[in-house]
Design goal:
38% of the residues lie in helices and 12% in strands. An eight-stranded mixed β-sheet has the order 1-9-8-5-4-2-3-11, sandwiched between helices. A two-stranded antiparallel sheet has the order 6-7. A two-stranded antiparallel ribbon has the order 10-12. Strand 4, helix 5 and strand 5 form a beta-alpha-beta unit. The two termini are 23 Å apart. Bound molecules: pyridoxal-5'-phosphate.
């Protein structure tokens, strides 16, 4: 009986348990202690970001972005439909209308050529998503945003430690949102960060994050008592999770390198099937341009995807797909809009399959995944 290969397995990279023990001995398990500030500082220095605020999730960071941009009922925000629910959920809770724009067939990122036709007098912001850790065309998006007076919040949930032209993804828009959920590259169970790239937003971001209070200013001695001054919520993570995260952040480059190895293995082993036109592989990219967050196959049809997924699952290999496009989900249909059909989104989301990819997957397990894909297409047991 061969063992099951999960789609994802959370991993311990190095000093996580040591740092958690240290956090406990420091007698401060609430927020904004030693490890929270270590994590912020590391991200600020590494990526040249004026202020990084650690938060409980990327969803929380996106919610803070909607509040910081002061989005109001009737406002419109442009974003892809091919994304996780949080990119749009943070808008709809303020009565903001998500305007879904189609993606490029090569990168599956927001198609920058389709953004301008979707801009109206009610447009306020663009929320680009860096799918699979590969950047959207940020120079074009920032140029369009500037010309139309729009704000930009990058959903860089999947793109921690990815670069574009030497700049870290998440550090380019007015705001950037990171995720450290256990399915991402760098993890702490549940966690995130808000990159405040526009310094004029820092003070209010700190207040919103701390229940609408000016506690940060109080601790810095800028005000003589701390009190309720604005909207806000509980967006401060626990020291325990930040201790875990700090150990992973220290190893960010090693994690990228390992994922690149896994990614390259799949790509090389599956190339023959791609050359025969049986599958399509992700567009190639340089080692800096991606953090190799995920590896996907595009199958010929939805029926082929379903059949391959069933075959792999029968063989104990967990392969999964995403997303149900948001414009076709019940909430997306109710609250969102589009200026034209989204043929690429509709097509790709039906044919995409993700393969197991996590830090300590073994080469033997990867070989088994590749072999079983071969068995599916060729009906015989042989390596290719
Ligand atoms: C994972 C993910 C999120 C949500 O991240 P959480 O930290 O789980 O809130 C948001 N957007 C995208 C594109 C994601 O992949």
């Amino acid at each position: 009986m061969t063992s099951r290969i999960p789609f994802n397995r959370p991993f311990v990279a190095g000093k996580e348990l040591f740092y958690i023990a240290q956090a406990i001995t420091l007698n401060n398990l609430g927020g904004d202690g030693h490890f929270t500030s270590q994590c912020s500082r590391l991200l600020e220095q590494r990526y040249g970001i004026p202020r990084v605020l650690m938060v409980p999730s990327c969803t929380a960071a996106l919610e803070m972005a909607a509040m910081l941009f002061e989005l109001e009922p009737g406002d419109e925000v442009l974003l892809p439909s091919f994304t996780f629910v949080s990119t749009a959920g943070c808008l709809v809770r303020h009565g903001v209308r998500p305007v879904f724009v189609d993606i490029r067939p090569d990168t599956l990122n927001l198609d920058e050529d389709l953004i301008e036709e979707a801009i109206t007098s009610r447009s306020r912001a663009i929320f680009p998503v860096h799918y699979a850790g590969l950047g959207c065309n940020m120079p074009r998006i920032m140029e369009i945003a500037e010309r139309h007076g729009l704000r930009v919040a990058e959903d860089a949930a999947q793109a921690v430690n990815s670069y574009q032209d030497g700049r870290a993804l998440g550090s380019i828009g007015h705001l950037g949102c990171y995720s450290f959920h256990e399915t991402k590259n760098i993890i702490c169970g549940e966690g995130g960060a808000l990159c405040v790239n526009d310094p004029s937003l820092i003070e209010r971001a700190e207040i919103i994050r701390d229940k609408g209070t000016n506690r940060k200013q109080f601790f810095r001695g800028q005000v003589d008592k701390y009190t309720w001054v604005d909207h806000g919520s509980s967006y401060v993570p626990s020291e325990l999770t930040m201790a875990f995260l700090y150990a992973q952040l220290e190893m960010a480059d090693a994690i990228n390198a390992r994922r690149r190895q896994i990614y390259d293995f799949y790509r090389k082993a599956l190339e023959p099937l791609a050359e025969e036109g049986l599958v399509r592989l992700p567009a190639p990219c340089g080692p800096e341009a991606s953090n190799f967050h995920l590896f996907y196959l595009l199958l010929e049809s939805q029926a082929t995807r379903t059949a391959l997924m069933e075959h792999l699952n029968k063989e104990g290999i967990q392969a999964v797909f995403h997303y149900v496009p948001l414009h076709s989900a019940p909430m997306g249909r109710l609250h969102g809009t589009t200026v034209r059909d989204l043929p690429v989104t509709d097509d790709i989301s039906g044919r995409l399959l993700r393969l197991p990819l996590f830090y300590d997957i073994t080469e033997a397990d990867q070989e088994r995944v590749v072999e079983q894909i071969g068995v599916f297409f060729r009906g015989v047991h042989r390596r290719f």
